[in-house]
Specification:
With about 200 residues, this protein is an alpha/beta fold. The chain has one domain: Maf protein, CATH 3.90.950. The protein is about 30% helix and about 25% strand. It is built from five helices and seven strands; from the N terminus they run βαβαβαββββαα. It has a seven-stranded mixed beta sheet with strand order 2-1-3-4-5-6-7. Helix 4 crosses helix 5.
């Protein structure tokens, strides 16, 4: 059975494959369908964006698809960057160190240096236009006083996880997957597909 994971991010795909490894499912990323343009992510919530991406790619490829939308919510910035996490700061801040600099500058301006924060992940599994399953995962923490760690990706170096006294970028890959927002959501999907494998067409 083939399941399209609607991402071009190899780090995310590797993390997801590790979680789903014991299921008899072939997971493929969007690199298997290079001719399909990306949809506009017009949703106002992570769940809305996950649904629209999953439906978009499933209807265009003809195979079941799972899409996730995830991001960082910083309380000291009123929930920013939120659903705009990947595009935060605009085209001139395409690299994450530039996004970090913007975040630290805005937190200093509000005197909210080590603000509480969370990572959120919403996923949707669809077959064509039909919604099969949804899940959500969150991890609570705060913004580190400076980026730390060489692992992970995205905002991981600035997200301090109090139970381990480390940023997510300082955790090992398996340990991060065990606590992360994305890991939580995809383990829920894993458990659903283990009980209901019939929802994926051969």
């Amino acid at each position: 059975m083939r399941l399209l994971v609607a991402t071009t991010n190899r780090n995310k795909l590797r993390e997801i494959r590790g979680i789903m490894a014991d299921l008899a499912i072939e997971l493929v990323g969007l690199d298997a369908y290079p001719a399909i343009a990306e949809p506009d992510e017009t949703g106002s919530t992570f769940a809305e964006n996950a649904r629209l991406k999953a439906v978009y790619y499933s209807t265009r490829t003809g195979v079941p698809a799972v899409a996730e939308d995830s991001g960082l919510e910083i309380d000291g910035l009123g929930g920013e960057p939120g659903v705009h996490s990947a595009r935060y700061g605009g085209p001139e801040a395409a690299e994450y160190p530039k996004k970090f600099a913007i975040i630290y500058e805005r937190l200093r301006a509000r005197n909210a240096g080590s603000s509480s924060a969370r990572f959120v992940c919403a996923l949707a599994l669809v077959d064509g236009p039909g919604l099969l399953f949804e899940a959500r995962g969150t991890i609570e923490g705060r913004i580190a006083d400076a980026p730390r760690g060489d692992g992970g990706f995205g905002y991981d170096p600035i997200f301090y996880f109090p139970p381990r006294r480390l940023t997510l970028a300082q955790l090992g890959e398996d340990e991060k997957a065990g606590v992360s927002h994305r890991g939580q959501a995809f383990r829920r999907l894993h458990d659903y597909l283990r009980v209901h494998p019939e929802v994926l067409r051969p």
